[in-house]
Amino acid sequence: MNAKRHIIILLAVFSFAARVSAQCPSENTAFKDGEELTYDLFFNWKFVWVSAGSATMNISQTRWEGKPGYKAYLITRTSPRLDRFFLMRDTIQGVVTEDLSPRYYKKGANEGGRYYVDEVWYSYPGGKPHLRQRYQNRDGVVTEKTYDNSQCIYDMMSLLLRARSFKTDNFSKGDKMKMPMVDGHKVEDINLIFRGREDFKMKSTGITYRCLVFSFVEYPKGKEKEIITFYVTDDDNHIPVRLDLYLRFGVAKAYLNGSKGLRHECTSIVGRD
Predict the structure, then answer these.
(1) How far apart are CA 217 and CA 72, in angstroms?
(2) Which pLDDT tens digit goes with each residue over 182-210?
């Protein structure tokens, strides 16, 4: 799994209990127009933690096919220092209706000199998801396909937006869940495990948050392999504040360094320096 896919999935995979059907409508209780989250990225390079870059996510109101909804952007950039080893210039875009049903997804990625574009369009004939997928590789070759299913399908961005409104009161440590995720050329299941609750102090801000802790895991040869551990605020905002990524070449971490336009008071804060 490449580094960029880790960074995007880490922001999406806490969507743990998506027990939904048909068009997957759901009330948005977590975010509002104008929200912006910023992150610092760090890599462990030969036993030394180095600044790796930054990521920004923002949400705004929009209209899709004449109906109101939300558009979300996630932009990730490596620092000039890291560009020599792994260049990353990625933009993720997602559009959902007001009831959080996915409508459009696009990822334009430049990862280590490998450029590609994923796109997905959603429609719901008869109340069931119909997906049109498009993938353009670094040579400009385009492949297209369609996918139909009776259960709800999400992409990385719509999964994040939908998940933030889930109620987590009934989560128990060790709970597991599989969820289907789509991109421009495939649909695959992701495996999620709830690890429990933990307080976490941010070094950059001195703020301690009460967090829900989750893992994204794979099962090569039937053995569990940890890919990402992530911490989200245990409040109505459900903001990812810390993410630990286990990569082939080391460990990466992402820390929230700023937020604005939150819909709710951040009641998960339990301490400040």
Answers:
(1) 26
(2) 888 888 877 788 899 999 998 888 999 99
